[in-house]
Write a structure and sequence with these properties.
This protein has about 200 residues and is an all-alpha fold. Helices cover about 70% and strands about 0% of the residues. It has one domain (about 5-190). It is built from ten helices and no strands. Pfam families: G3P_acyltransf.
């Protein structure tokens, strides 16, 4: 009789599944399908929804935002359904890493904002809703996508404490640090006052 899968092997399996789901470059796929060219040669070259918007196609940008969020959510929900909460948190982290460092694009991916929000909605929906509201508020106030992302990430662990969902606190800290790392160039531009606003060419 073959040996049963160990808990460690199960976590590794969901880590891989999460990474592969996160690695799907929906921005690149949608812009190619819609005849908008190679997204990596447009604007900032980023594969996320903000750069897709620079093509002038709002439908493609909205689709990218939703699908990039959905892949993080699906990774969490599948892992939780089949292997429990620890697997859900592992899949959450690796799906985010998959978006940022996708194997299909030589590990040159996006900044993970939509995937981060999708993960939070699936992992702890009240925290996810508060993070989305924080992101929307930040963007509405400044029309700067990166500012909204950094604000939402910064508040994510605060919302965990205020809603008594501290079981995912370590994951929240890791994701926040990764969001800041992926936005390090944006942070310098924010400090310099040169960060482009949504809709501006770059």
């Amino acid at each position: 009789m073959p040996p049963m899968t160990t808990p460690q092997e199960l976590l590794l399996l969901w880590a891989l599944i999460g990474y592969l789901l996160g690695s799907i470059p929906f921005g690149v796929i949608l812009t190619k399908i819609m005849g908008l060219g190679d997204l990596r040669s447009i604007g900032s070259g980023n594969i996320g929804a903000t750069n897709v918007l620079r093509t002038g196609n709002k439908s493609a940008a909205a689709g990218t935002l939703l699908l990039d969020g959905a892949k993080g959510a699906v990774a969490v929900l599948l892992a939780r359904a089949f292997a429990g909460e620890d697997a859900a948190q592992v899949a959450a982290l690796t799906s985010f890493l998959g978006h940022c460092y996708p194997v299909w694009l030589r590990f040159k991916g996006g900044k993970g904002v939509a995937t981060f929000l999708g993960i939070m909605l699936a992992l702890i929906w009240p925290v996810g809703l508060l993070c989305c509201a924080t992101w929307i508020a930040g963007v509405a106030l400044t029309r700067i996508s990166s500012f909204g992302a950094l604000l939402a990430a910064s508040f994510s662990t605060i919302w965990m404490f205020l809603t008594a969902h501290t079981d995912a606190f370590v994951l929240g800290v890791l994701l926040t640090l990764l969001v800041f790392w992926r936005h390090r160039e944006n942070i310098w531009r924010l400090k310099a006052g040169t960060e482009p606003r949504i809709g501006e060419k770059r």
